[in-house]
Amino acid sequence: MNWLQASLALTPPVLFLGAALVPFRDEAHRNRTAKRIVEPVAALATFVALIAVAATGLWGPVETTFVRLTSAWSPGVMLDALSATTLLLVSFVGWVALRFSVRYLDGDARQGLFLQRMCVALGAALTLGIARDFVTLAVGWTATSAALHLLLTHFSDRPRAIEAARQKFLISRLGDAFLIGGICLTAFGFGTVEFHELFALAGEPGGANSLTGGAAFLFALAALTKSAQLPFHAWLPETMEAPTPVSALMHAGIINAGGLLMIRLAPLVSLSPGSLHLLALVGAATAVFASLAMATQTSVKRSLAFSTVAQMGFMMLQCGLGAFAAAALHVVAHSLYKAHAFLSSGSVLDAAARARVGIDEKPERRSSLPSVATATVGATAIAGSAIFLFDAAAKPGGVILYAVMGTAIAHLIWSALRTRRRAVVRNAMAIAVALCFAYLGAYWLADRAFAATFSYAVPNRSPWDVAVIAAVASLFIAGFAVQTLAMQNGDRPFVQALYVHLSNGFYVDVYLRRLTSRFRPAGD
Amino acid sequence: MSMQAMAEERSFAVERQAPPYADGRAKPLAERRAKALDEAIAYATDLIPPLWPLADFVAVNPFIGLIDRKFLDARAELRRVRTCETLPSNAWLAEELRSGRISQRDVEAALRRCKRDYPQSLRGWTVEKADCLVRNNSDRSVEADRDRLELLSERVDPSDRSDIARLIQDAVSRFCAAHFDEGQALWPSPWKGVPLYAAWRSAARFDRRMETMGVIGFRRFVERLPESPNDSIAASLRILNVPVEAWPSVLAATLFSLSGWASFLKRVEADKPGEENLLGLLALRLAYEAALAERHPVAAEAWAKETTRSHWLRSQERHGERVLARYVVQTAAECALQRRLLQQIVPTSHVGQAPRKRSLAQMVFCIDVRSETLRRHIEACSDEACSDEAVETFGFAGFFGIACRHLPIGESDGPAQCPALLKPAYAAVETATDERAERVCEERRRAVRLLQKVWKKFQTSALSCFSFVETTGIAYAGKLLGDSLRWTRPAPSPARDGVSGVGIELRLTRESRELTSIERTDLAENVLRNLGLVRNFARFVVFCGHGSEVTNNPYKAGLDCGACGGHAGEPNARVAASLLNDPQVRRELETRGIFIPDDVRFVAALHETVSDQLRFFACDLPEADRGDFERLRSIVGQASETTRAERSRRTSSGAPADALRRGKDWSEVRPEWGLAGNAAFIAARRCRTQGRSLGTTCFLHSYDYSLDREERTLELILSAPVVVASWINLQYYASTVDNFAFGSGDKTIQDVVGRIGVLSGNGGDLRTGLPWQSIHDGSELQHDPLRLFVLVEAPRGAIDRTLQKHPSVNDLFANGWASLGSLEGDEVYLRSPEGNWELRQDSIAATAASLYSAFRCSEESLA
Predict the structure, then answer these.
(1) Which of B68, B142, B516, B561 makes an SS bond possible with B569, Cβ 3.0 to 4.6 Å?
(2) Do A359 and B190 touch (CB under 8 A)?
(3) Distance CA A56, CA A42 (A)
(4) What DSSP string runs through A81-133?
(5) Which DSSP symbol is given to B771?
(6) Which is it for the CA torsion B695, B701, B702, B708, positive or negative?
(7) Measured distance between the N- and C-terminal CA atoms of chain B, rounded to whole angstroms
(8) Distance from CA of A103 to the nearest CA of B (A)
(9) B763 contacts in A (CB within 8 Å)?
(10) DSSP string covering B796-855, please?
(11) Cβ within 8 Å, pair A499-B408
(12) Which chain A residues touch B489 with a CB distance below 8 Å?
């Protein structure tokens, strides 16, 4: 069975990379060939990934090594719940994005090249997903970044594209440095580059030492850099110079690499409270900052980019709180949502027209709003406490996550109540209940699916945990306060200043631009 | 330099010593300066064409402020202040010559014509010279003569090697987007209610962007600026030390550095004239320049000196040889088109007799160039189907003369369904069949929309966006699958929200009251008279509006009916049909000499231009009409198919059935070709063009001079549809010759901003005009950059009389923005720029010759 499962894991990346290497006579031939083959190849890869998911579900996780090179490293692949999920997610999003690109870039003189680069990026991202050791992971990590760089400079005659790609390049190399630093530390410290060996060694009594802590810290920094977290986020909103499918692929398949690294290394990272705290604090700060900055953005793609930064922040927060299964769920859900959001960004006028209410929004004359409101509040309370009581005690920091969900539901019902229309309130309540069940169901599923992946001990609580959770909570409360109060008080100077700074993303992009311009080759 | 100018120069030199905002100068001077400033501002703002927001996107002539200048003079003038090109590329022209599409005789005719236009520049030119200059030239050497007044920000480099002009453009663009945002941002700008300039000053108190970029003290600088935009411009000009004579050019160049937003604001001015937003934009953009001047006095001084170079001052234009050669060859390309087009005109001897038997239907289509193909196929199919019962077609502006606002059920405002030049006087109000049903519909729609709004908030609010993703994200896998396989639309169409399964009627109102029967009859009579349809009514008279059903395309409005303000023409068609079906209106019409037999049914339809299908709105036909109507329906169905087959030759896949996919595909960037290819406007009886394939080059307006004794219809045609057609034509022209300046670039990197326009990539200015994909299929241009040729079947005298009444229309022809011909029997006269008429020798051939170039797609179908 091992070999079968290993080949299931290997097939999707090999298919994508194979599609990228199809020979061609000239550019026109390349365009024709690539257009013809990429979609079937991606569809096949998705199908294989689907089988891989089923196989993992049936037979459990496997690891296969092909050859023993050194005592520290035997190349191989791993197929467990996490890598199977990644395979399916990235292949599926890849299929959607490639299919989209066939018509979307029709007539582009370099469409074939573009499609092949997409395939390389996908193949590399998949390699990263099935890695069982740091070497494979680092190869996938850097190859993804390189392919992405080429995609971002597809319109190489646009100065803005070059500038943006340069910013991204610089941040990515910083991330690479963190990753390679971490790998070196583990390789020399533990004498292995394989995940499970490492987890076993670090997990031994006394394993949670400064070496483990240092490595985990570097990996956490690498993940934060890769996933565009504060203060490394500024490049992401500047990547709109690439065709829309690249954005879809990047926001759905590539930016997750940071989160994936953290989830994959959960057993190691959870041994280092410092790293967890870093993830939680940076993630929460990013989530709050970016979701507020998103609210001030006026262009579709840019606000989607800030939304990604925020969502990645929330995912990092989940990692930092030890809720790795939740983080994995968040990655998958966000990828699918964001891929669709980007590809359908041309429909913004249709979507806006649907939410436009032309006639006065006066309330119904004869209304039983008070009773509806009472029912709503009751229902919310029940749903909220159900969520809250759901093993809140077992998961450290879970309180925060449940509170976020509770607030969101309350917000939904509150804004429905403000319309003062029975039909709306009734539907919104039905939706709220459905959402609560969807939430619980998804978590239950994710917990079960990824249980095997995270077989590690819950770290001991320390007073610092409480402080971090308190800090995270106050960040969120501050964010919520700004959202609810500030927007209605636009005439206060403080609010105005905050608006201006937020809409400018706190000028981080300017600093980044100044930094990168130093690295510009002379005469450019 | 004249004595007076020198004296003035000296007096300003003295004044320059004064501190920037000090008051109390000599009064006459101050007055002179104020007047000069007003003139300079008027000059700059007049050059800007308006831009409509995406939802009502209609074509605009990008040279609208320049039509009182001659074509080449306008080019020179524009290029002094804006990086742009207004002539086709040399490569394209050379290819036209090489391929033989332009004949030697065309070049001769063109040179004759051009010599009269630019006698001094073209003195002594020969055909060989023009020909040779274009053939042996490359576009690169043409680029070299580009010489534009650069702004100070394009010269200085304050901090590290960043491009400060681009950064300023980004900053202003972002600010404008926030100020005019129509609901994209959940947290709107706090200064949305105030005029642009005041808002900018308030925001600039907090904004540290410029200072982070190295312009230290910018916030303090802005605080010191005067409160009114006018004074602010004066203050900035003083700081920049620009001499008075260079003000117009400097202000125009400043405004053109944000031409997209300036155009958008030009349009906003019409709604909010008091806010002086365009002036505000000029003031704030100039303030950045002034701030830089304070930081970089040496560079500023050098720059200010340069603005006085005689080149920047308005004077007699001189045109380079290469430019003139290109102009001659371009005119030759237009002559070639005229030649080919005139060969397609049916000679009087071949004009068929009016059918003795009554026609089955008379179908009225929009003048849009896309109608011609379907019209021709419907006529052909009806000939085949039942030779004794013909279907006649007409061309008329697609709003059918009813300038109304369309108010969907449950909404208090709606789109203006009329050309951008008009203000809607009426409202077409959607109503359900009975009052109860209407209340239910309204309530249901409101509930659906409000729930959508609540949901949207849940999706984007900082409070709930994380939970939104966690709870619904997985479900997007299904949506991705459905949208990819075209099972679903990314965003459902809002038109049927809460009203599905309910019969909706349109009621025409004026200022929220019902129309009197006189008013209704007036409208109806106007439609029929302007259409030239006052007798011999067929069994069915069909008003066919048109619209484009596309998915995931922010430029949908650009593909919809321009005569309906960038919307589908369905409401107008339905209103027109119901007016003319009204028995009372018919009785009234009878007293005015238009007798409509009782069995004539007026029917509305929508021509869907992606798939060329026709959707009828005729659910209430009497039983007796059903049989005939079914015959009409089958003829039209057949015609749709053959039309698709003809049009599909122009698409990459070439399969007719592909047209049915394009409209539904969310990844399709070229659902249809829109009005690409337009080059001529023909106002004539249909019999003069019937049976001849005109491809997608012609706007066809039905016009019968014999029915227009008072020349009122002629006046209407020349002053309205012709102007709109010329706007469309020049928009396509400009987007083709310089997509960077006048078009909106590559669709794949467009980003919809504020729900009003698009940006390219990471930022920059608001884009105007057409995307590159709308005019180019990847291997070649799908639109030939040719100026409109207007051919009217009317006597020369009548045309002259009409043009005298409309000087702005006359400008179009006199200054070379379009050309005009008169079709008198079998003779064609071309109007020269001075207003004389010349007989074209080779006018009308007895047989149709083959067409190519602009007629590319239809050439085979003719065979």
Answers:
(1) B561
(2) no
(3) 21
(4) HHHHHHHHHHHHHHHHHHHHHHHHTTT-TTHHHHHHHHHHHHHHHHHHHTBSB
(5) B
(6) negative
(7) 66
(8) 6
(9) 160
(10) HHHHHHHHHH-HHHHHHHHTTSEEEEEEETTEEEEEPTTS-EEE-TT---SSPPP--GGG
(11) no
(12) 347, 350
Phi/psi for B614 (5° steps) reads -115, 125
Question: Encoding tokens for residue A49?
Answer: 């990934």
CA-to-CA distance for B126 and B132, rounded, in angstroms? 10
Of B189, B491, B776, the CB nearest to A499: B189
* pLDDT digits (tens), chain A, 524 positions: 578 888 889 999 999 999 998 888 888 889 899 989 999 999 999 999 999 999 988 888 888 887 777 777 778 888 888 999 999 999 999 999 999 999 999 988 899 999 999 999 999 999 999 998 899 999 999 999 999 999 999 998 888 888 888 888 989 999 999 999 999 998 888 888 888 888 888 877 776 678 888 999 999 999 999 998 988 888 898 888 999 999 999 998 889 899 999 999 988 888 888 899 999 999 999 999 999 999 999 999 999 999 999 999 999 999 988 888 889 999 999 999 999 999 999 998 888 887 776 655 554 444 555 555 655 666 666 556 555 555 544 555 677 787 788 888 888 888 888 777 888 888 888 888 888 888 888 888 888 888 766 655 555 567 788 888 888 889 988 888 888 777 777 788 888 999 999 988 888 888 888 887 776 554 43
Find, in chain A, the residue whose alpha carbon is nearest to that of B661: A103
Distance from C-alpha of B409 to C-alpha of A168, rounded to nearest angstrom: 49
**What is the rounded CA–CA span in Å between residue A175 and residue A145?**
10
Q: Return the residue matching tokens 């490394």.
A: A232
Contact B470 A164 (CB under 8 A): no
- Residue keyed to tokens 């400009």: B734
Structural contact between residues B191 and B199, judged by C-beta atoms closer than 8 angstroms? yes
Among the partner-chain residues A107, A439, A487, the one whose CB lies closest to the CB of B470 is A439
A156 touches chain B (CB under 8 A): no
Tokens, residue A18: 């194979």
Q: Which residue of B157, B159, B466 to mutate against A (max A Cβ within 10 Å)? A: B466
What is the separation of C-alpha B168 from the centre of its chain, rounded to a whole number of angstroms? 29
Query: What span, in angstroms and rounded, lies between the C-alpha atoms of B448 and B445?
Result: 5
Among candidates B178, B184, B473 on the partner chain, residue whose Cβ is nearest the Cβ of A503: B178
Query: What is the DSSP secondary structure assignment for residue B569, as one 8-state letter?
Result: S
Chain A positions touching B484 (Cβ under 8 A) are 95-96, 99-100
- B355 by Cβ neighbours in 10 Å (0-12 / 13-18 / 19+) ranks as middle
Region for B404 from its dihedrals, namely left if φ exceeds 0, alpha if ψ lies in -120 to 50, beta otherwise: beta
Of B446, B473, B752, the CB nearest to A345: B752
Instruction: Assess A394–B contact: CB distance below 8 Å, yes or no.
Output: no
Residue A366 neighbours by CB under 8 Å, 6+ apart: none
DSSP assignments along A392-431, one per residue: TTTSTTHHHHHHHHHHHHHHHHHHHHHHT-HHHHHHHHHH
Cβ-nearest to A424 among B188, B450, B755:
B450
